[in-house]
Write a structure and sequence with these properties.
about 230 residues, alpha/beta, Rossmann fold, four-stranded antiparallel beta sheet, globular, binds adenosine-5'-triphosphate, binds magnesium ion
Length: about 230
């Protein structure tokens, strides 16, 4: 469904991603792990076309999207929840969601009921300005906004960063539900190991822009954690 073949990426002269290859199938639930600065966000942004790659290929549903614009990737079913959320603070919750609707291929201009069903707080606060929500609520809004386009894969970059524990639990439950009930594939960047274990079936570990290990979540053992994840 999503395949990366030997992707290399640079910021100017800095070589960040080194021959990154990975593959996600429909309904996969994968967590990308790694210490700060190893290139996790750069990889997510490369997949979404927000940064150009220098070498390699990105395939989505068998099509080569290596040079496709970000909006076209979104329309093709790739939902992205960026690190730091990036919602519009001065727009209302509803306006944030409606703005995302503009990218729908089928011309639907109504917020899908699923969004408010998954996150009732967004319905209660739909007239509230995005910037007035708590961090956790903003994260839920960012996830809701990505879901408005009815994606086939959801990419999330550290959705639990700086969020109160009860909302972390809720977000975990929503991701599991989207995966299990709707078959949505998920690629999640996460630093909280308990959350990663609870939500994902498979892990990929990066270090210095390279994939160093991957496997079933049940095989993520202490030696891997010590070597690649503890600070
Ligand atoms: N816009 C940029 N221009 C130049 N260098 C950048 C840019 N963004 C990131 N980098 C560098 O690329 C490397 C990878 O950064 P990236 O943000 O992808 O890491 P990360 O794994 O997401 O880190 P974190 O866990 O802190 O979010 C770092 O060395 C970072 O300093
Ligand atoms: Mg990051």
């Amino acid at each position: 469904m999503l395949t990366l073949n030997a992707v290399d990426q640079y910021y100017g002269g800095s070589h960040i991603l080194h021959e990154v290859s990975l593959s996600l199938g429909a309904g996969d639930m994968v967590c990308l792990l790694g210490r700060n600065g190893v290139g996790k966000t750069t990889l997510m942004r490369s997949i979404m076309g927000q940064v150009a790659i220098k070498r390699g290929q990105i395939l989505w549903q068998e099509k080569n999207i290596t040079n496709l614009a970000t909006e076209r990737r979104a329309r093709a079913g790739m939902g992205f929840v960026p690190q730091g959320r990036e919602i519009f603070p001065l727009l209302s919750v509803e306006e944030n969601l409606k703005l995302a609707l503009a990218g729908r291929r089928d011309g639907q201009r109504k917020i899908p009921p699923l969004i408010y069903e998954l996150f009732p707080v967004l319905k209660d606060m739909r007239q509230r300005r995005g910037g007035d929500l708590s961090g956790g609520q903003q994260q839920q809004l960012a996830i809701g906004r990505a879901l408005v386009l009815d994606p086939k894969i959801l990419l999330l970059d550290e959705p639990t960063e700086g969020i109160q524990p009860n909302i972390v639990v809720e977000i975990g439950q929503v991701l599991r539900r989207l995966n299990q009930e709707l078959g949505l594939a998920v690629l999640l960047v996460e630093q909280k190991l308990p959350f990663a274990r609870q939500v994902a079936d498979r892990f990929i570990i990066m270090e210095r822009g390279q994939i160093q290990a991957q496997g079933a979540m049940t095989t993520l053992d202490d030696s891997l954690i010590q070597r690649y994840l503890t600070v």
